[in-house]
Amino acid sequence: MTVSAIDLGRPAVRQQSLWRYWRGGLQGSEFTWAVAFIVPYVGVFCAFVIYPAFYGLWMGSNPALYSEVFSDPIYLNTVVNTLIFLAFGVNVKLFLALMLSGFFMRPGWWTKVLLLIFVLPWAVPALPTFISIHWMLNGEWGLVNNFIWIVFGADGPSWLNSRWLALGSAIFSHVWKWTPFWTVILLAGRMSIPQEIYDAAKVDGATGLRRFTDVTFPLLANLYLVLTLLATIFLLGDFNSVYFVTGGGPANSTHLLATLGVVRDMLELGKPQLGVAAVMSALPLLIPLVIILMRKLKTSEAQL
Amino acid sequence: MTTIAVDARRTSAPAARSSERMRRAARRWRYLTNAGAALVSVFLLVWTLTPIYNIVMVSLESEGDVAVTHLWPSPPSAESFWVVVTEGHWYLEAFWHQFGNSVYIAGMVTLLVLLIGSLTSFSISRMRIRNGWIITNAALLTYVIPASFLAIPFYLIMNRYGLNNNPWSVIAVLVTFATPYAIFIFQEYGRSIPLELDESARIDGASPLQIYVRIYLPLMAPALVAVGTYALLLAWNEYLYQFLLLSNDRSMTVAVALGKFLNSDVAPWNYMMATAIIYALPPLATYYAFRNRMSSGLTMGGVKG
What's residue B301's pLDDT? Predict the structure, then answer.
């Protein structure tokens, strides 16, 4: 029962038959065609992935750079920010998405309409909404402090002038923007669980909370894990939510690695090597995540 | 026999009472969950719409009105939209030109992603070229690595070859990061098309190119639409590379122009928000128009933006 249930919840990759369609392999000109068809992608990959990647590795290969990077207090702040961002950003948005996907399983036209509205933050480009949040948080004329002034008659804090409030705002914006996306994915995951499993569980007495802990979550666990890894990796490379909401300020205290490397090191200080080194310091975390994720994606790609 | 009947009659009264109690409990439970759902709905609406409301509000303000304490512009005016579409502010001098740049880049990226992605997955999964899995893995790796990590070396390389301010440098990088997703989806979707079709065409003497054009592409149409939408949105919404590579007024896109607004000291916020709304409408319309085509399994790729 459990095994078949898991299999149903996670449609396995269809067995690739060893039967070769072009029997006897590709012949003569066919092989040339096949090669010609992959040449464009191989060209793109070599020119725009391999070349920049190796160029970056070469730029960051000087060990002296790293002593400069690690003695930079702003870099150390950035590492702390990144860890906080990862701990809260990833978990809050995925947990919210898991709960909300259950909410959106409710029947009725209202839920469908609400879902259409709810995906707006994801459907709208990042730029306008992040700029809007930036202005909302303006200490003097922003919507948030206007609201606090009108309702409570008090001055709100100047959100973007303190490191922790600013970082919190950036995390909030990130969660606001990306929760709908993960909700839609988890909703699809929930919908792929067949109703019969719930019916069977009901007969066995699993209702209410146990329905979730004993049926839904075990079936979604693998998907949830893959999404956590993916969200972590994408968040490591996040640029927009910090760049537009806090601009890395106040006093460069809310940077993430990507904004630190690009904006501060390359554009402001004119030291691109330093930026590459800062970004590359994420590789010890990134590479294991990528390896685990690639393995996971191969076993469960049909579900994504 | 009779005793059982008697028993049944004797127990029926408490049973009816308990079932009545259960029904009442169930009704109470339903009220509670409905109230909870209503609360969650209200919270979600406020949560989702507040930043969007803020854009609309600021864009409807007239020029001197931005720096005032209020929650609704009085009176709302569409003046800033008019200023944007007539390019009536020195920040917006090249607005339609920049809009055209955005359209051009998004269109080219979409075409190239569809072409390169479909050719590659045809060769790998239909013609089964030997060692095709290496390319599949390379694509997956590119999909997984954050694009911003390659930004600095990419920028320096483009500078070295004098390709900054050239839209093709942006097109190249966007194609690079969108094609892996295309390959991934095309291979998944292609499994539903029977290989026998290709085989019979081949026996009839069709060349691989003919099979690709006459059989593969028409049957892949739904996947092409989904991936095309994805590539279009990705190219239109992307900021970092456009910001680094396109810096002069004639070559930049709307996204870069918006970012430039933000960094100036005397940003006219109402014009900026009006620009932002005009910029956001095309992708929004595209998304809602093709929403159903980008079926659940195909939403995966929207992560990168």
Answer: 39
A165 occurs within a structural domain:
yes
Check B297 against A188: CB less than 8 A apart.
yes
Residues from chain A contacting residue B207 (CB–CB below 8 Å) = 29, 33
Average pLDDT estimate for B187-196: 83
| B212: closest chain A residue by CA | A37
Answer whether residue B41 shows pLDDT above 90: yes
The 10s digit of each residue's pLDDT in B277-305 is 999 999 999 888 888 776 544 444 333 33
Taking CA atoms, A13 is separated from A190, B145, B158, B190, B291, in Å, by 18, 23, 40, 13, 25
Mark whether A47 and A99 lie in a shared domain: no
Looking at the complex, report in whole angstroms how far the Cα of residue B71 sits from the nearest Cα belonging to chain A. 7
For chain A, the straight-line distance linking the first and the last C-alpha, in angstroms and rounded, comes to 24
CB neighbour class for A246 (10 Å; exposed up to 12, middle 13-18, buried from 19): buried
Do B156 and A53 lie within an 8 Å CB cutoff? no
Task: State which residues form the domain around A262.
Answer: 66-300
Q: Please check whether residue A287 lies inside any domain of the structure.
A: yes
- Residue pLDDT, tens place only, A282-296: 988 999 998 888 887
**Whether residues A149 and A249 fall in one domain:** yes
Q: Are residues A52 and A192 in the same domain?
A: no
Query: Do A194 and A50 fall within a single domain?
Result: no
User: Do A38 and A160 fall within a single domain?
Assistant: no
The string of pLDDT tens digits covering residues B130-172 is 888 889 888 888 888 888 889 999 999 999 998 889 999 999 9
Chain A interface includes B282 (CB < 8 A): no
Q: What is the ipTM of this complex?
A: 0.83
Asked whether residue A15 is domain-assigned, the answer is no
Looking at the predicted structure, is the pLDDT value of residue B43 above 80?
yes
Low-confidence ranges of chain A (pLDDT < 70): 1-27, 298-304
Same domain, A89 and A217: yes
Q: What is the mean pLDDT of chain B?
A: 84
CA B170 remoteness from chain centre = 18
- Tell me, yes or no, if A108 comes closer than 8 A to chain B by beta carbon: no
User: Do A136 and A27 share a structural domain?
Assistant: no
Which residues from chain A sit within 8 angstroms of residue B198, using beta carbons?
Answer: 21
**Band of pLDDT at residue B8, cut at 50, 70 and 90:** very low
Contact between residue A29 and residue A214 where contact means Cβ atoms under 8 Å apart: no
Instruction: Give the DSSP H or E segment for B235.
Output: helix B221-237
Q: How far is CA A169 from CA A65, A93, A122, A134, B125, in A?
A: 32, 14, 18, 9, 46
- Residue A171 lies inside a defined structural domain of this protein: yes
Query: A248 to chain B nearest CA, in Å?
Result: 12
Q: Which residue of A has its CA nearest to B194?
A: A21
Contact A192, A256 (CB under 8 A): no
pLDDT for B14 equals 63
Cα distance from N-terminal residue to C-terminal residue, chain B = 75
Indicate the residue among A35, A59, A83 that finishes a domain: A59
Number of domains in chain A: 2
